[in-house]
């Protein structure tokens, strides 16, 4: 079954524009990523269903560029740490924070409300960036704060866009009497594209929370703990509209494309 799935994925890729040399190189890298003991040249050729002429030069070139190494005793090729090193030159969390901070600052300036960006950290929400309201008084969450998922809008908004398996694991950990209510809450967030609800932790605070995506899926959520102040700042509805547009802007800067996503309609309506 897995082999058939791989063939189907391969066929789907070939229906799109492709660069043969790059495709072969990626096929080799992906194959060896699943072969911790390495493979000989003949084994690579057989596993990919290609000819020696198609694969030989690709493997040699990847070895010359230090993406592969060959064991002189066995002739087996294996991945080096080159891909690992490349992937860690730009920490994805640092990139997220750097992209988010100016957008959070703009939200605070436009709405006169504080806002913060949270991400899932196991069973908690970690606040990785926050901006205070420019007003003399207000409510804010500090950067680095850690909250249980079940007490936050951020956690539920993120969970609403995770996989069914991730949601099932979360639901299995909470009391059975609460599961139906939480399941309905996640479905409502998914349908609306945001959450607007009273804070479960601070009386008088209204949580306005929207999801943030990258090219792979959900990465976090922007939340404003809205406090109405007479004659100052935006209304809750105006603040929510600003949050939604800002979250789309941040998501697109991270590689998200609403027109290519099943979540695009709910985010932009």
What does this structure look like?
It contains eleven helices and eight strands. With 269 residues, it is an alpha+beta fold. The strands form two sheets. A six-stranded antiparallel beta sheet has the order 5-4-3-8-7-6, sandwiched between helices. A two-stranded antiparallel sheet has the order 1-2. Strand 7 and strand 8 form a beta hairpin. The longest helix has 20 residues. The two termini are 39 Å apart. The relative contact order is 0.10.
The tally of domains stands at 2
- Tell me the helix content: 40-55%
- Give the integer mean of the pLDDT values: 88
Shape: elongated
Specify the CATH architecture of the largest domain.
2-Layer Sandwich
Q: What is the oligomer described by this structure?
A: single chain
Structural class based on helices, strands and sheet pairing: alpha+beta
Q: Could you state the CATH homologous superfamily of the largest domain?
A: GAF domain
Specify the biggest β-sheet. Answer: 6 strands, antiparallel
CATH class of the largest domain: Alpha Beta
SSE run: HHHHEEHHEEEHHHEEEHH
User: What's the total helix number?
Assistant: 11
Gyration radius (Cα, Å) is 24 Å
Q: How many strand segments?
A: 8
* Major sheet: arrangement of strands: 5-4-3-8-7-6
Relative strand content: 15-25%
CATH domain fold name of the largest domain: Beta-Lactamase
Alpha-carbon distance between the two ends:
39 Å
Low-pLDDT parts are none
GO molecular function, one term: DNA binding
Protein name: Transcriptional regulator, IclR family
Pfam families: HTH_IclR (PF09339), IclR_C (PF01614)
Domain IclR-ED: 82-256
């Amino acid at each position: 079954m897995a082999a058939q799935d791989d063939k189907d994925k391969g066929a789907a890729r070939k229906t799109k524009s492709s660069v043969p040399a790059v495709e072969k190189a990626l096929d080799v890298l992906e194959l060896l990523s699943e072969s911790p003991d390495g493979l000989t040249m003949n084994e690579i050729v057989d596993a990919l269903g290609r000819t020696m002429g198609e694969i030989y030069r690709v493997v040699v070139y990847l070895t010359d560029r230090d993406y592969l190494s060959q064991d002189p005793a066995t002739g087996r090729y294996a991945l080096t740490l080159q891909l690992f090193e490349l992937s860690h030159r730009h920490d994805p969390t640092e990139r997220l924070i750097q992209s988010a901070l100016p957008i959070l600052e703009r939200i605070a300036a436009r709405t006169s409300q504080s806002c913060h960006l949270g991400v899932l950290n196991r069973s908690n929400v970690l606040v990785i960036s926050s901006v205070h309201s420019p007003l003399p008084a207000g409510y804010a969450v500090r950067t680095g704060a850690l909250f249980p998922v079940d007490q936050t809008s951020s956690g539920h908004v993120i969970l609403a866009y995770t996989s069914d398996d991730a949601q099932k694991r979360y639901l299995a950990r909470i009391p059975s009497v609460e599961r139906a209510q939480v399941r309905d809450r996640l479905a409502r967030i998914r349908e609306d594209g945001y959450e607007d609800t009273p804070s479960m932790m601070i009386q008088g605070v209204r949580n306005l929370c929207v999801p943030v995506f990258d090219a792979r899926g959900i990465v976090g959520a922007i939340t404003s703990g809205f406090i109405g102040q007479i004659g100052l700042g935006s209304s809750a509805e105006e603040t929510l509209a600003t949050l939604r547009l800002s979250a789309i802007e941040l998501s697109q800067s991270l590689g998200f494309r609403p027109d290519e996503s099943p979540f695009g309609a709910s985010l932009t309506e």
